[in-house]
Amino acid sequence: MEIQGLCPLIQVFDMNTSLRFYCELLEFRVHQSAGEKDDIGWVWLKWNNADLMLNTAYETPDRPELPDPARVAAHEDTCLYFSCPDVDGAYQDLLAKGLQLNPPTIAPYGMKQLYFKDSDGYNLCFQWSV
């Protein structure tokens, strides 16, 4: 068996907000999408060797005013780990883009890690072995 990649799919509340976060702050680019410009329901994002798909949690006419707390509660249990050789540089870059972040730390198992949350409350970690 051969595996050549992995592309997680996460549910997002507002696609435009998520695209601003992932494309403008993290520099992903849209590889493929489905829907109209103001009503995109699904996207496949790429950033170097990283792939991520976003899907709206609600169809546009069914989307409530605010996210349902019960539905997004599990976002805290999800973390996307990114291989990032320059964690300190990423930290400085994200600070310069206006994100509120705690500095990177070194885990007991030898990984320098920068944790933060995306616009939907999913955990993200940029990490590299020290």
Order of helices and strands: EHEEEHEHEEE
Low-pLDDT segments = none
Structural class: alpha/beta
State the helix count: 3
Beta fraction of the residues? 35-45%
Largest sheet: 4 strands, mixed
Beta-strand segment tally: 8
Radius of gyration: 16 Å
Task: Write a structural description.
The chain has helices at 15-25, 69-72, 87-96; strands at residues 9-12, 29-36, 39-47, 50-56, 79-83, 105-106, 111-117, 123-129. It has 130 residues and is of the alpha/beta class. The strands form two sheets. The chain has a four-stranded mixed β-sheet, with helices on one face. A hairpin with a 2-residue loop joins β2 and β3. The radius of gyration is 16 Å and the shape is globular.
Write the layout of secondary structure elements.
Blueprint: E1 9-12, H1 15-25, E2 29-36, E3 39-47, E4 50-56, H2 69-72, E5 79-83, H3 87-96, E6 105-106, E7 111-117, E8 123-129
Parallel strand pairs: 1-4, 5-8
Antiparallel strand pairs: 2-3, 3-4, 6-7, 7-8
